[in-house]
Amino acid sequence: MAEEMVARLTAALALTEVAVVDFGSLGSAAVAEDGFYLVGCMLPRKPGDEKSLLGLMATFWGLHNRLVITAHDGDRFMFRFKIREECHRILHNGPWHFGGRMLVLGEYDCLSAVEAVPLHMVETWVSIKGLPPHLRTEETLILIGSSMGRFLRANTLPLQRGAAEKKFCRHVDVRRQLRSARGFTFNARISADVQIKYEKFKGLDRGCGLFFHEVEGCDKFPSIQREKQSPGTALSVVGPTLASGAHLH
Fold it and tell me: To the nearest 10°, the Cα dihedral for 28, 31, 33, 37?
């Protein structure tokens, strides 16, 4: 089969000088469509020891014969899953940690370069404490979660039970500073200072709220920061839309 294909291509393409070669049906047949792909890297980055983690990942996930992990130049891995549901589980049930470091994952279309896949968003559950009883609602969690990034969903069970600790799922940008506490104002009479905990997070500098530093050292910030802004730059909410002139994380 391979020899016949080579002979046909040699006869058809040997004399071509066009800039773009169209393989037609032969090209379609050559495209591999088996598997579902993710790209990942470890945080904080420690070049040199990534390869030792490959076998540990497959073993921990119980996917010995259904997962192929390939190390790429730099600090990235490519994951090929045989089953879509298993790929979805690994992507959405993290964050995962190996060797005390967090694995950041992104979906991969197998067309772009592995290095071009954005690896800075982590889906995680966030728990907050400090809300008074009349603010322990799903609407409150949507407001708070949306002010911190992309809100995904709330854990409704603690809401139904009236628990003091509330949880919601959101995307976290690991390039941004994460606060361990924050104040929120709901109207002229009602405000709340809440404690914020990011579940299953390792590698985060608890002092400055960063996973890695662009410069030596880090800037500490108070446990609770209220934005002191000039008029017109405060976070405003109109219906379901959030607008802000300031950078809020």
Answer: -140
Say if strands 36-43 and 101-107 run parallel, antiparallel, or are unpaired: antiparallel
pLDDT at residue 229 in the model: 35
Q: How many CB atoms are closer than 10 A to CB 152?
A: 14
Q: What is the pLDDT of residues 167-217, one digit of tens each?
A: 999 998 888 888 888 999 998 999 999 999 888 777 666 666 676 655 444
Can 33-116 and 121-230 be said to share one CATH topology?
A: yes
pLDDT tens figures, 20-45 = 666 666 555 555 557 899 999 888 77
**Upstream peptide bond of 158 is cis (omega within 30 degrees of 0):** no
Q: Which helix (H) or strand (E) holds 68?
A: strand 67-71
Amino acid at 116: A
CATH number belonging to domain 121-230? 3.30.70
3-class SS of residue 152: strand
**Residue 200 DSSP symbol:** T
pLDDT value at residue 220: 54
| Contact between residue 125 and residue 199 where contact means Cβ atoms under 8 Å apart | yes
Q: Which single residue is written with the structure tokens 């405000």?
A: 191
CA atoms within 13 A on the CB side of 159: 14
Using a cut of 0.85, tell me whether the model's pTM lies above it. no
Q: Where are the domains of the chain?
A: 33-116, 121-230
Edge-to-edge strands, sheet with 181-185: 150-154, 166-173, 121-129, 191-198, 181-185
Distance between CA 133 and CA 196 in Å, rounded? 17
Looking at domain 33-116, its CATH superfamily turns out to be RRM (RNA recognition motif) domain (3.30.70.330)
